[in-house]
Specification:
about 35% helix; Jelly Rolls; alpha+beta
């Protein structure tokens, strides 16, 4: 299967809740550092013991997120895996495994930091979205 071009990556990123407030130009910058990865059914994407140094965006397929072997959520198209990994080195006690054929965009933490150093508006937008998500979780609980 052919790799996505930059425009196709931007279109995919536009559908991601975490990135919705960004302009097409900003999304293009993120798309330029996003790498495509694929996993077959049953393959592990990440596990607690391995640590995570990237954010993943599901382009196609489904991913099971589990803790201590117990499924906690299923991620589908346009959902984000590992957003915490961009900002926190501590391992998350969650494993991610492909349920079926999975196509992801992978954004490496170091590449992301390099991008943010020249694009503070991207960081501000993503932090604002994360804070809104956190506030919503706290208000629900």
């Amino acid at each position: 299967m052919a790799e996505l071009n930059i425009v196709e990556k931007v279109i995919a990123l536009e559908a991601v809740e975490l990135l919705k407030a960004l302009s097409p130009e900003q999304l293009s910058r993120i798309a330029s550092i996003a790498r495509e990865v694929r996993y077959r059914p049953g393959e592990t994407i990440f596990e607690p013991s391995g640590g995570v140094d990237a954010l993943f965006i599901v382009l196609d397929g489904t991913v099971d997120l589990s803790r201590d072997g117990v499924s906690i959520v299923t991620a589908r198209q346009n959902e984000v895996l590992g957003a915490w990994a961009l900002f926190d080195d501590e391992p998350m006690q969650v494993a991610a495994k492909a349920i079926d054929d999975v196509h992801l965009l992978r954004i490496n933490r170091d590449d992301f930091y390099d991008l943010l150093s020249d694009n503070i508006e991207i960081a501000a937008s993503i932090f604002a979205t994360l804070v809104r998500r956190f506030r919503k979780l706290v208000e629900q609980g």
